[in-house]
Amino acid sequence: MVGDSTLPASATASYFRPMGFWRRLFGGSSSSDDLKPQRLDYLNEALALERQGDYDAALTSYRLALRDLPNDARILQNMAIAFTKTRRYDEAIRHYRRALELDSLLAGAHYGLAFLLLQRGDPDGAAQHLKTFLAHPPRGPDAQKWVEHANQALQDMRAAPPPTRATEERTGSS
Question: How big is the CA angle at 98 (ends 97 and 100), to the nearest 5 degrees?
Fold first, then answer.
């Protein structure tokens, strides 16, 4: 009866073999059983948080993604977009500029930076970035909408008279 209540030695060995825990506990190791650190996908997490409207949490995830990939221009561009949506325009401008240092043809960064510069009262800088955007427009289903918007902004800037001295005094720009 004793033999019926226990597993045969070969079955016992095969039962414990997949349990790398025992090997690690008692000092053995197996390359297939070793723990492999897994990186979290901070970028996709950030994009999901942004879609939910949680821009501050998205920025935290973008920062973690940037720590893993410090020279990724697209992460910097996405951070700039999130900074814009949280009204942190100086940070957005800084991140767009850093993204463009890494990838001078990053269309989205030129587009976003152009409109922030226009908002800040720098039409010359905005026009330069809009022209660069239009010289290398993005591809995709929504691209035409952005191209038309950029063209319209350039036309509006050309049609607008330069600021007068009275306007400069009221807005505090010079």
Answer: 65
